[in-house]
Amino acid sequence: MLTAFTAGLLLITVSELGDKTFFIAVILAMHHPRRLVFIGVTAALAAMTILSVLFGQAVSLLPKVYIHYAEIILFLAFGIKLLYDASKMSAACDTEVVQEAEAAVKKADLELPKQKTPLAIVIEAFILTFMAEWGDRTQIATIALAAGNNPIGVSIGAILGHAICAAIAVIGGKMIAGRISERQLTFVGGCLFLVFGVVAAIEGA
Questions:
Q1: pTM listed for this prediction
Q2: pLDDT tens by residue, 113-122
């Protein structure tokens, strides 16, 4: 369980910093109370984590040998892709990700009343974050972790990792957003995925 918790915590914390959902939280926190944004964002990420873990548990019913090799291939493929992406990036923050986050928030603001209740703000943060996270690499990685590791450990670690990233985004996101090196974070994330792939291969040997 401790191994699953650590894996979930490290994987999510490194992968989510500088991600689209991170910048959505940053932008929302500039216009709305931080506490409400944090509640909505964290609730969405927790819900996504639980769904991913449940799906991972369903996948775990397949023959263990298939799960084992799929887990190795998935982590190694993600790791190689992230390292390749990092090699093509500039040292600055990825403006494309920021622009996508800004567009998503702007669209949501246009569809909602100008005078927003606290509940409306929480719901907006929840929906925007949930939709942005759907199909993201961290969701797929969480499914893979849950298929081969303790589901409770993965859930707690991943949710804590998401909460840490959400807290960083809403509290100091505006200050540090321009200083985040997407290239370095992507490189570290790629290395981490490769490590998990190697560990999975060794454990199954």
A1: 0.78
A2: 666 788 988 9
